Amino acid sequence: MGEDRWLAGAFEKVKEALSHRDVSTIASGSGGALEDGSIRLRVLNRIALISTEGWSVVWQDGGEPDPDMKVVLLHYLLGAPGRLDGTLISYRDVEGGSLYYSVFHQRAIAPMVNMFENDPAALDRSAIALGGARVQRGDMSFDFLFFPFLLVNISFWKGDEEVPTTGNILFDASAARALRAEDLAHLSGDFVRYLRRGKM
Fold first, then answer.
1. What is the b/e burial string over 70-87, where b = at least 16 CB atoms within 10 angstroms of the residue's CB?
2. In the predicted model, is pLDDT for residue 73 greater than 60?
3. CA 43 to CA 128: how far, in whole Å?
4. Which of 50, 79, 108 is the last residue of a domain?
5. Domain range for residue 130?
6. Is the predicted pLDDT of residue 152 greater than 80, yes or no?
7. Which of 11, 48, 185, 197 is most buried by its number of CB atoms within 10 A?
8. Where are the beta strands (DSSP E) in 46-139?
9. Are residues 128 and 140 in contact, defined by beta-carbon separation less than 8 angstroms?
10. What is the average per-residue pLDDT within 168-180?
11. What are phi and psi of 104, to 5 degrees?
12. What is the CATH number of the domain that holds 130?
């Protein structure tokens, strides 16, 4: 119930804040395109259509994002980072990240490691299906453009009899301008669920 109240309150607040911004600036700053009263924004391998009147969010190919993803997406539009920085940061580098780190780890990193530590091939399939690009970091690593100006990296280090398998989720430094720590925890938790399904 507390989570539902947070979502409802956050949704109304961000819609109100966006209503006072210039929509063309929002579109360009987020990497979206303004088309026929909506902002067209890529989210991983799908396209979201965001109405610039009521700030409703739907998928171009049908359906709607989950409520928490709607809030994260609208917060991203409000943050409108404008560009990728090209430098990776950890969750703890985001303001408030140290305070929320245990929540972030529980929602995202721990489930990701538990899910894929014994089946790296499944991770590879899911990552590629979601538009991930293989990169040289750890034993297995992928970069994803979650939003046009927000890159997410996941990395795994295989364990052995003495050392457990570990994983990490990093972000382009633009994330610190675009989203708060709580948003990034929600985004990362949703992202891991998408990885489990191999689709959004």
1. bbbbbbbbbbbbeebbee
2. yes
3. 15
4. 79
5. 88-197
6. yes
7. 185
8. 46-51, 57-59, 88-89, 133-134
9. no
10. 97
11. -60, -45
12. 3.30.310
